[in-house]
Amino acid sequence: MRIVVIGAGRVGFSLCQRLTQENHDVSLIESGEERARYASNRLDCRVIHDEGNNIRVLEDADIAKADALVCVTNSDELNMIICGLAASRYPRLIKIARVRNNEYIRFHRAGRQDSPAGVPAVLGIDHFIHPDVEAARWVLNAVDRGAMGDVLSFPGTPYELGSVDIVPGSPLDGLSLLNYRKVYPGESLITLVERGGESFLPGGATVLAAGDRVHIFTKGENTEAVFKLAGRDGPELRKIGIVGGSQIGALIAEGLLYPERQGEEPGFFDDSAAVSVKKRGLFSFLRALRPKIQRKIIIIEQDYGLCKELSARFPDALVLNEDISDESFVAEERINGLDLIITATGRQELNIITAVYLKSRGVGRAIALVSGTGYGIIARQLGVNVVIPMGQVVVDSILSRLSGNAVRGVHRIGDGGIGIYELEVAPEADVAEKPITGFQLSSGGLVMLANRGGDSFIPRGDYVFKAGDRVIIIARHGSEKELEKCFAVHP
Question: For 211-222, how does the pLDDT look when each residue is reduced to its tens digit (9 = 90+)?
Answer without folding.
Answer: 898 999 888 788
